[in-house]
Structures are given as C-alpha cells and as structure tokens.
Input
Amino acid sequence: MGTQPRLRVSARGATSACDFIEQLNVAPARSGLGIHIIVRNVSDHSMTIEKENPELQFSAAVIDSHHRPVGLTPRGQNLYHPPAKSVFVGGGGPVPLAPRDEVQYDWQISEFFDVSEHGTYLIAITRTFDTLKQTIGSNTIEVQAP
Output
C-alpha cells in the first residue's frame, strides 16, 4: 500500500489542526476583500492539483460582526445554488505539483458573498477530498470591509 501524498496549505505562518493530507489556512488577500491561499505539496510524491478557480475547489463560511452568515451575491447564488442542468466551465485544469512545490490563489470573497456592509467579517474555508471522504478546514481570519 502506497503512501498518500500530503498537501500543506498555509498563509503567513498560520497552521491548522489537520496534517494528514493538507493543512488548509487563509490570510487576507493582497487587495480587495478576499483571501490568500498557498497549497504546498509536503510529500515526496508528485501530485495533480487544479491551478485555477479556487471558488470551485474550496467552500467558504463568511460571518458578519453580528455572528450571522452573510448572504450570497448573484454570482454566489449561481455557484452554490446553480439552476437545474447547469454546467461549470473552468479555465485551469489539473497541473502536476512536484514535492515541495506550491500553488497560490487569491479568492475575492466579495464576488460571491455579500460583504457590502462596513465592518468586520470572519472567513474560514474547507476543501473536500471526495475520493478520501475527508474534509479539511482552515483557520478563521478577520477582515475589515471598507
């Protein structure tokens, strides 16, 4: 039986509790109201990963300053509650990720979640590995909406 490849997702020194396959962490994006994600292969095996479209790979929980989940934008509605018989078309596709290599994502949360109110929001993400029947959760970050 072979060893499962392991991924580490980290951002600016944050760590999560799960280290089996992936550590999934978030930090504020460099611009806009979003998050920055780094996926690093910490195994000694090459693996494949989707390089684009973080909104199709991760699920986000966005909580407002009153500790309530925020609503979705029209684009978020189409993503999380698509009309019947919808087809998602992405532009990236899987790419090989060599041991110790990394892929970085900036996900503009404000495109999918209604963060139009001035204030503080809490954001955490998850990633589900269907073949392993495992979901990995991130740390939670606080971001300020203008």
In short: Residues 7-145 form a domain with the Immunoglobulin-like fold (CATH 2.60.40). The CA atoms of residues 62 and 123 lie 5 Å apart. Confidence is low (pLDDT under 50) at residues 1-23. The two ends are 52 Å apart (CA to CA).
